Amino acid sequence: MLPSSPGQQGSWPGLDGATGWRWARSRFLAICRKPINKSDRGFALTIAVCYLSPEGIVLGADSTASTFGPGGAHFFNFNQKVFELGQDSTLGVLTWGLASLGSLSYRTLLARVSDRLAANPPGSVEDAANALIDVFWPEYQAFGPVQRVQTLHAKAPNGTAEAGAAVRTAEEESEYEGLKSSFVVGFCVAGYALPNRIPGAVSVMFDPTGARPVGQAMTGETSQWWGVPNIIQRLIFGADGNLKSALLSSGKWNGTPQELDQIVQTQSLSHASLPIRDAVDYVYSCIHCTIKAMKFSSFSQVCGGPIEIAVITTDRKFRWVRHKPWDAAIIDGDSND
Predict the structure, then answer these.
(1) Average pLDDT of the residues in 137-161
(2) What is the pLDDT of residues 62-105, one digit of tens each?
(3) Which among 78, 175, 198, 260 has the fewest CB atoms less than 10 Å away?
(4) Is pLDDT above 60 for 9?
């Protein structure tokens, strides 16, 4: 992916940027092969953005949630992916990937995290992220589809002949390949913990084939994107992982992957330190461009709906910049014609 080092712009923890379009398509096709219980609500393949600024934090996301069943894909455009962590809080949460744990919503889970933090105030953003992990991990482990992936993961790949080992059947192998990335979910906890007013952000990825996660802190003034970062990688960095992979495998490139990275990085559109309102514009623009690019592509419309943005500044608590009203889905499509 570009860039490859943690904490830089455009990083996609757990999923390489080179898999962006293929991942979206494979998830769609693999899940549609097999009916899914309606309670195992599908994933929300998001464009989610966090901008860490000396003045504070900007969190933004689209509003599309995708579900899959025997009839194919269905999209809801009024899902919420940005949350205030508690009330009158200095912390916010951004989520992407799997849209819920079946009938257990993230709204409920984050309320539980908020209750825990109210009883035991965090000393840092990292403490708040750890509280989220403590609450979410056991529920994630108990979620039926995650347990199914873990059962398949424990078996040896189809075609192997390890003595005494359970081996996945051809059907199980296909199921495993379709499901192992379909139940990945990520969170970004951001803001600050009083009395310290230094802003911070910590991302956490839950993977059904992985161990209990550890939060990854963003450092310095930077932005990070999750879900479908390819559009912004192409726009700002000049290339995404797919293009780089194609060049490396073409037989025409004689250098190393690192040398290709160095050449591509010379074309990056760098920017100065942004005032917080310009950081808001930056986050909005990243999401807007991704939604429009997906709209005019041949891919499924896994990003869309109203753009929601929140800001937490070092002198103020969580505030909405753009937030859907409760009747947003009702008035959608209204016209004066």
Answers:
(1) 92
(2) 999 888 777 877 889 999 999 999 999 999 999 999 989 989 99
(3) 198
(4) no
Q: Which residues of 243-263 are buried (b: 16+ CB within 10 A; e: fewer)?
A: bbbebeeeeeeeeeeeebbee
Per the structure, how many domains does the chain have? 2
Burial class (CB in 10 A: 0-12, 13-18, 19+), 174: middle
Strand order in the sheet with 47-53: 222-227, 47-53, 56-61, 308-313, 318-322
Q: In this structure, is residue 4 part of a structural domain?
A: no
Is the whole model's pTM more than 0.70, yes or no? yes
Q: Which residue segment(s) compose the domain that 308 sits in?
A: 17-143+187-326
Give 204's strand partners.
187
Tokens 């899902």 sit on residue: 79
Looking at the structure, tell me whether residues 250 and 112 fall in a common domain: yes
Non-local (6+) Cβ contacts of 220 within 8 A are 7, 52
Q: Which of 96-110, 194-208, 236-250 has the lowest mean pLDDT?
A: 236-250
Helix (H/G/I), strand (E/B), else coil: 165: coil
- Residue 251 CA to its chain's centroid (Å): 33
